[in-house]
């Protein structure tokens, strides 16, 4: 499924750095976001756009993640040649990320249902 | 417990004005705060001031003051704003003139100055945060340097009885923190209180972005009434708990989701949100619904300020020339790509030196590149060429080459458009806080 089914997102900009929040509609889905939306996956998703490091900050109390993407705005909002110099649309692009349909269960819990098994 | 009610009347320089009037008339607020100064705005304002010593403040200052001064006076609402931009003194004089015009005798208008540290930054040995290079090497390209001031001078102005406080560059949340410090007498080393006030300010500073603006996504996140979006009211108590709401009946929505998105907007490490007065910590913030269109946020903390101020340095960066043209119907994408290749070749043939060149097909790959774009053929595309040059004359030639596609390019190109502009960039420098010497001047109508 697409990340957009579980989470909403907003992009902010400072200089040449973009931050993208990923917020679970239902805080119960936060562990799934934390498991599947890693800094590495975000970096790979934006290959060719982001030239710097991607850092992830976790906010379990809000059911949210915050990604900080260095070198993401074509040299900086004030001088970029890009149509969307602020990178406002990056949040929508991130919500296009594919994540597994099966919920992740916490460590030590029962195994996830077999594929094709009854929905839980 | 005592509370202070603050309305956010603008989230950027060009923002709508009626929502601020609605807050003044129906928001039952004590303060109306306008945040109107983006990173680059003050550099452009400084250029305007160099051309005309009476200019350099927000172009909508007069329209906003004409709209809200009378209702604010009538209801005892005090106004705080950074609409002074590069010239808070002239903005205060203009505001006094509007007040006199409206018959508001005795209205006290304060100007906060001292954020302009251009001379000190030009004279000293400073390092550019983004590049690590020396500020000195920027030489004559530097056009402005403004330090982000804290809440202190605004608090002083309020203590001296100002009805309107007009600043240049201050930390955006400080515009909201100052009324809280003034009203509750928070000590400037009560870090947790300052952290909570900063949370309130951060949630409010972009106005409609916390009440349903910049949020709607039809089918997933529906928001009613965006054409008459209500701007937020923040209700803060003495302990620093903040509730965000809006005028009943206005458009938009205040929900956990709108508030969470705004909490993380333009935040990097949520545990270290650097401000002039405090390093705020939002990492343990909790939110809960406190009623219809009402969300309560608690759990912000604070750590001692760093003693450094961020300075935004405006520099003449380059020139950008741009042109666009549209193609539709069968083969639109192929004709758009052909158009881009023709312009690329023309710029080389005619010797336009670009330091950087971008060729986009709007509707296909302009925003996020070819890889993330789906492989479907759109009905229409818009070819876009943008290039960075060292002179305006060369920048003009980029758009010209797109325009000549009318009679020289692929079939059916329409709606050509071109522009060329000077680019003012912004870099940051950290300086000791005592380099800036804030001053408060009060005018009376």
Describe the overall structure.
The complex is a heterodimer of chains A (120) and B (445). With 120 residues, chain A is an alpha+beta fold. Chain A has a domain of 78 residues: 2-Layer Sandwich (Gyrase A, domain 2). Chain A contains three helices and four strands; from the N terminus they run ββααββα. Chain A has a four-stranded antiparallel β-sheet. Chain A is elongated. The C terminus of chain A is likely disordered. Chain B has a ten-stranded mixed β-sheet, sandwiched between helices. Chain B has 13 helices and 18 strands. Classes of the chains: A alpha+beta (120), B alpha+beta (445). At the A-B interface, strand 1, strand 2, strand 3 and strand 4 of A face helix 9, strand 14, strand 15, helix 11 and strand 16 of B.
Radius of gyration of chain A: 16 Å
The major β-sheet of chain A equals:
4 strands, antiparallel
Poorly predicted runs of chain B are none
What oligomeric state do the depicted chains represent?
heterodimer
DSSP, total strands of chain A:
4
General form of chain A: elongated
Protein name (chain B): Acyclic terpene utilisation N-terminal domain-containing protein
InterPro entries (chain B): AtuA_N
Pfam family, one (chain B): AtuA
Organism (chain B): Methylobacterium crusticola
